[in-house]
Design brief:
Length: about 210
């Protein structure tokens, strides 16, 4: 059953509703879970190994765009942050080779692209009177020509997310459309005509690398 509007209004009377894709996903899957977890804060969040491995991978890929990037230093630093035991270490070490190959692939690909401007882990916040919506985009590749900005969205996939637009009306699989909404309200692109020319889902999994 839906959460009553009266209950929501009482809860958010002092500050607007704050949403992100993960909030929407949880709400439409089970409104009561959303209420218990995100409003009453009854769940103590303890990320599982897969989530830690994803955070580790995202962090190394983000570091790869820094001028002083050193692969070994980044891997060791982030492994220390996210790995908790010997079991984690085994999978993190396997992921290390995958990340090395992905970073090399990205650099080669970006040499041939006209989208020379790159931003990583871009945090975009849209504030409206009745709600705040926010999200992090893993990577933006873009270029500005005249009054147009041409943008490709890159989303790293370390899990088994469903990529489909079939269930949007029911509130599911909204991540990619939500990125488009965020970019339409992205401050650095204000005054420019936004052209989203592609969405690239980059698998970041421990697999045999296929050239």
């Amino acid at each position: 059953k839906m959460i009553s509007q009266e209950l929501l209004k009482r809860r958010f009377i002092e500050k607007p509703l704050k949403l992100a894709y993960s909030n929407l996903k949880l709400f439409f899957a089970c409104p009561f879970s959303y209420y218990a977890d995100r409003i009453l804060n009854l769940n103590e969040f303890k990320p599982q190994m897969a989530a830690r491995l994803g955070s580790y991978s995202h962090a190394v890929l983000e570091d790869s765009y820094k001028e002083d990037f050193d692969f070994e230093n980044s891997v060791n630093k982030n492994k220390e942050l996210y790995s908790t035991d010997a079991k984690d270490d085994f999978f993190f070490d396997k992921m290390k080779d995958t990340l090395r190959n992905i970073i090399a692939f990205n650099k080669d690909h970006e040499q041939t692209s006209d989208l020379k401007e790159i931003k990583t882990e871009e945090h975009i916040i849209v504030e409206k009177p009745e709600f705040t919506f926010e999200g992090y985009i893993d990577k933006l590749m873009y270029t500005v020509k005249d009054d147009n900005v041409y943008v490709a969205i890159v989303d790293y996939k370390t899990g088994q997310d469903v990529v489909s637009l079939n269930n949007i009306e029911d509130g599911f699989n909204l991540q990619l459309p939500s990125y488009m909404y965020l970019l339409a309200n992205y401050e650095p692109f204000k005054g420019l005509k936004l052209n989203i020319i592609g969405i690239y889902l980059q698998k970041v999994n421990i697999v045999i690398f296929d050239d």
